[in-house]
Design brief:
The structure is a single chain. The protein has 82 residues and is mainly alpha-helical. Helix content is 73%, strand content 0%. The protein contains three helices and no strands. Helix 1 packs antiparallel against helix 2.
Length: 82
């Protein structure tokens, strides 16, 4: 089973990446067409930042566990605009 773990991990990462791209790209495209869509984008960004802060708080509250931590997270850090 150890040889399948990297391939399963890569499959999960690629699946999540393409699924999110397939949802986010058309959504952002439509938001730019809708008047006032920039406010909606700001809400998405603020919500994502809040979710990220919440998960970081959960990780800090449970030392010794690596909840939702993957190798790709270290390779592709999330950058939240200020």
């Amino acid at each position: 089973m150890p040889t399948t773990k990297p391939s399963l991990s890569q499959f999960a990462y690629a699946g999540g990446y393409y699924l999110s791209y397939g949802i986010v790209f058309p959504t952002l495209f439509m938001i730019h067409i809708i008047p006032g869509g920039r406010s909606l984008i700001s809400g998405f960004v603020d919500g994502a930042a809040a979710a990220d802060a919440y998960l970081k708080g959960l990780r800090a509250a449970t030392p010794g566990t690596h909840m939702f931590t993957t190798e790709s997270e270290a390779e592709h850090p999330v950058v939240v605009p200020a």
